[in-house]
Amino acid sequence: MNARRGDPDMQDPNEDTEWNDILRKFGIIPPKTKPQDEEESSPTVRVLNACEDEERNKESSDEERALLKYREKRLQQWKATQARPRYGELLEVMVQDYEKEITYAEEHVWVVVHLFLLDMPLSAQIDNHLSNLARRFPRTKFVRASARTCLSSQGCATTLSSRCMSADPSLPALCLYISGNVKGTINAQELSRLSLHELELKLAELGAVQSDLQQTKRAGGMKIIHKSAFKNKKDSDSEDSL
Question: What's the pLDDT band for 241 if we cut at 50, 70, 90?
Fold first, then answer.
């Protein structure tokens, strides 16, 4: 007699016997059911799994808190930047105001000082460059002060000789301050060779302005800028001659 599914006399279909293997092969009895893994269903394993889930949730929460903290920090930095004074023009500082407006200027504000010489063509060129840069970088304070007048004033001369002119005495010159400290100077010889774009790049390298020319230089594009600037100047000169 053929064995039938559901026959009460048939042996347990889950037993590991050769006969049951044959019956499973021909589909007469269903495949052997796998007993539930006792280890996975044990209370200890369930507790461990729950602990792992909790740890993963904690790590996720820590990452979210770190991200929120970073965003808050960046927001505060942006607000601080927006709160800084804006200038936007080349200012002239009298000798009596030198320390107030330059040495003790607003904290974290870069001050670019042109120590000019009256009726000197190079000083006029520098003034023109700084006026352009002041409009482009209104959060940097660009000022001009008479070198002769400052050097003849005891208080101003002391400041200049100890902080700026001792490092580079040639005039006219640029002296860069931040938070009362001199961070760099550019002497007359170097200034005479700098175009507007080159002066901007120099100030950016010293940290006084945030300029896109830094990235352009890294990408090898400064020659293109200079060629373009030269072309514009040549075109302007041509128009002036008409």
Answer: very low
